[in-house]
Amino acid sequence: MVAVDVGGTKIRAGSVIDGVLDHLREVPTPAAAGARAILDSIAEVVRGVISDTDVSTVGGPTPAWKVGIGSAGVIDPESGTVVSATDSLSGWAGTALTSEITERLGVETRAVNDVHAHALGEALSGAACGTRSSLLVAAGTGIGGGFITDNRLLTGRQAAAGHIGHVPVAAAQGLPCPCGGQGHLEAIASGPAVLSAYRRAIGERSPGGPQVTTTRELAEVARSGDPSAKRTFEQAGRALGTALGGVANVLSPEVIVIGGGLSGAGELWWIPLREAFAAELIPAVRGLPLRPAQLGQDAALIGAASLWSTGRGSGRDTISSDTYGTTMTTGEEPQ
Amino acid sequence: MVAVDVGGTKIRAGSVIDGVLDHLREVPTPAAAGARAILDSIAEVVRGVISDTDVSTVGGPTPAWKVGIGSAGVIDPESGTVVSATDSLSGWAGTALTSEITERLGVETRAVNDVHAHALGEALSGAACGTRSSLLVAAGTGIGGGFITDNRLLTGRQAAAGHIGHVPVAAAQGLPCPCGGQGHLEAIASGPAVLSAYRRAIGERSPGGPQVTTTRELAEVARSGDPSAKRTFEQAGRALGTALGGVANVLSPEVIVIGGGLSGAGELWWIPLREAFAAELIPAVRGLPLRPAQLGQDAALIGAASLWSTGRGSGRDTISSDTYGTTMTTGEEPQ
């Protein structure tokens, strides 16, 4: 099958045959050009992957191609439509994603939200492999999440589950949130929020201070000893840890996996994150591990592919999407 | 079967035959006398229910009795033991609840946490009936919760899921929480927290003010116009609403059901609760209903009974405990 990850800046795809991800292709997302252009780009990159795979499997049988997509936006896995999306993908909301791709390519297609796909991927063969319940948190441009329980992805009413970034936190009180509300985690702990907080601090202190445009650059500034940069990462890590501590007390997963761009910021972010998280845990939840994600940008592809995998009859445990009931084998024996 | 609800002040039990709860009995919980006394009281009240039922079904076949228990404390439904408990039940932590009851009565026994049982009951035949996912929140002496998704109760690692009372909220910053932490919802929004906040306010204003010992009394004081009493309920309702808004953004259930003693406080608590809740919801979750619980103290009994019910082959949807895979019919057709 072909797995696709549709993000705000790029579309990435690859073949997944016998659990192996291969023949990766990547094109820029025509994010400003509207839904039709994005759909055409998805179809084009999928055709490329199929073509590459067919050439490389000379002599073997042609696979019965299916497409699994993890896409930015709230995606209803049942209807395959984009329920809502931010302005970063112009006209994406309301797109009949799976049926449009099926129409273009003549192959069956399934789709979920990209962070949900990420969570499935890490649960299947990443940092949460072997657990029955896990929470994946992706901290980057936004802060999203995917919760797996009893080896099923929680999609929620209107496919909206997992919006970890919209948990209220005291440290964000009064700050506007991209959702239109205020005081949410994302307003203080996302990548853009970290950059804004740093610019506010720098602007107050020294208008001629270092110019940074990415959290990666800012992390370097922080590591070089800049106290404002350090403080913004600490503040962001601490806010995320506090919010996740509360979520952990409610969900009690076996593990929380942290991915996304900010997870590469290093110990200046991870240490306050871990400290604030541990401080919130009730005795019954104490010891719950926070682990870095393992699969990087492949996680969403592996998760998207899992929408079509079936492991029935294998005598092992399963990961099921709430909607499809498709199953994938994990390393655990059934109880 | 016999359903039992073990609380900090009383043990309640009844028969559940063909889905009908009957032959209710109630005894005080010997909370200070240790686990053996509590177990003996449970066994005694179950024997009483069985005896009442056998007498009343003269001529009919004797049911094959089983016992389902919802109990205070963190209860591991798989092993049937009390993982942890507060000091309100002396020596309860570590008790092998189900095997001790089986030993005393010679009948098979299953157990879950009482709030988890409450959630199952409301989902099965109360305010969340007909939904596939719901969150039950019990706001009283503590603030607990039970989350049902895809018609399964989320028990979580170490059976600890549902501790809604231990979500951090800005309004509780600095206040000590019964869990040993601070700044959690329970520190401002539980019944005891409401009473404490009122006493602090009254103490500052007028040491000779009205003496109240229950939230029910305090609600009457508030309804009679006392501004401090009104403010404490508003503050508690608002804090609960804020925390639940964040939880709703993460879980996106179809409905949130509110029970527990505080839910009887009236509009002075419900209005700020609803307002604060709605203010936190992201667009994708907006419109999620908050409903009052419907089954009162019978909910936990109906939920405890559901641990033994099986609806397999009924061609309808199911409620399953994560651990047992027992199923109960609901009003929904499978998808």
What count of domains describes the coordinates of chain A? 2
How far from one another are the termini of chain A? 30 Å
User: What would you report as the Rg of chain A, rounded to the nearest angstrom?
Assistant: 20 Å
Could you tell me the number of beta strands of chain A? 14
The CATH top-level class label of the largest domain in chain A:
Alpha Beta
Largest interface: A-B, 52 and 52 residues
The ordered string of helix (H) and strand (E) elements of chain A is: EEEHEEEHEHEEEHHHHEHEHEE
In CATH, the architecture of the largest domain in chain A is 2-Layer Sandwich
Oligomer: homodimer
What is the helical fraction of chain A, as a range of percent?
Answer: 25-40%
The CATH homology group name of the largest domain in chain A: ATPase, nucleotide binding domain
- Strand content of chain A is 15-25%
Class derived from helix and strand content of chain A: alpha/beta
> What fold name goes in the CATH topology slot of the largest domain in chain A?
Nucleotidyltransferase, domain 5
Family (chains A, B): Belongs to the ROK (NagC/XylR) family.
InterPro entries (chains A, B): ATPase_NBD, ROK
Organism (chains A, B): Brevibacterium aurantiacum
Pfam families (chains A, B): ROK
Could you explain the architecture of this structure?
The structure is a homodimer of 335-residue chains. Helices cover 36% and strands 21% of the residues of chain A. Chain A has helices at 35-56, 97-105, 114-125, 186-189, 191-205, 215-223, 227-251, 267-280, 298-306; strands spanning 2-6, 10-17, 20-28, 67-71, 74-76, 81-84, 109-113, 134-139, 143-149, 152-153, 255-259, 290-292, 318-321, 327-329. Chain A has a 7-stranded mixed β-sheet with strand order 12-11-8-9-10-13-14, covered by helices on one side. In chain A, a hairpin with a 4-residue loop joins strand 5 (74-76) and strand 6. In chain A, helix 3 crosses helix 9 (298-306), helix 5 (191-205) runs antiparallel to helix 7 and helix 6 (215-223) crosses helix 7 (227-251). The first copy, chain A, has 335 residues and is of the alpha/beta class. Chain A is globular and about 55 Å long. Chain A is built from 9 helices and 14 strands. The relative contact order of chain A is 0.14. The longest helix of chain A is centred in the C-terminal third of the chain and has 25 residues, at 227-251. Chain A folds into 2 domains: 2-113, Nucleotidyltransferase, domain 5; 127-292, ATPase, nucleotide binding domain (Nucleotidyltransferase, domain 5, 2-Layer Sandwich), CATH 3.30.420. The model of chain A is unreliable at 310-335 (pLDDT under 50). At the A-B interface, strand 9 and helix 7 of A face strand 9 and helix 7 of B.
